[in-house]
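thread: overnight batch results

M.L. [08:02]
morning all. the overnight job finished for the chain we discussed friday. pasting input first so we're all looking at the same thing
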Amino acid sequence: MIETDPARKYLLYAIGEIALVVIGILIALQINNWNEYRKDRVKEKEILANLAENIELNIETLEADIERHHEFNRSSQIVLNVLDNRLPFVDSLDIHFHRARVPKTMLSLSQSGYEQYKNMGYDIILDKPTRQEIVSFFESTLPKWFTIYTQVNAPYVPFIDHHVPLFIYKRDTLVPVNMDQLYDDDYYLGWLRAYMEGRNTLIETETEFIEENQRVLEIIKKQLGE
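M.L. [08:03]
and the structure it wrote out:
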């Protein structure tokens, strides 16, 4: 019987031990990678859910703003009808005179979910087209829309200056100092109509922006499996 060389036996044993250690490390790494992947998917779902919540809240804000524009325009129309037909002032008109001169409204849209997403890292969302849609919406579409909204929404200071001495101011109401003067104040009447047109423009841009919000929301919900 040929005896195995002790050195060879030790070498084979050492190689076997090393192999077991390497396999163990690889398995441990695989398990760790799987755990990290699982944690990332949990984070991804959280980010997507927060983004969806932001957009849903913003849609509600935009819809409420549109309703305010309609409300203010109804008041403007009431005031213009009274002045165009030289009707007398009655107490119920004071709220309408106030609303008619409100330029528009200022919006605050939620972006906290997107800030969290940026801090987490864009690659946390695996689906590339979804990632691109979200980034494009919050980095490009939303800022551009806000620029247009702000430009249209800006109050006209000369009209405000002209308007101030014409009324007695109370809380959320305005009472004309001289109704007869308002009947023939073409500057005042013209700017009431201009503000109405400004609100109509905002209604149009907000309606279009709601549709874009809804489109991006559907993409996010698809990734959430909803």
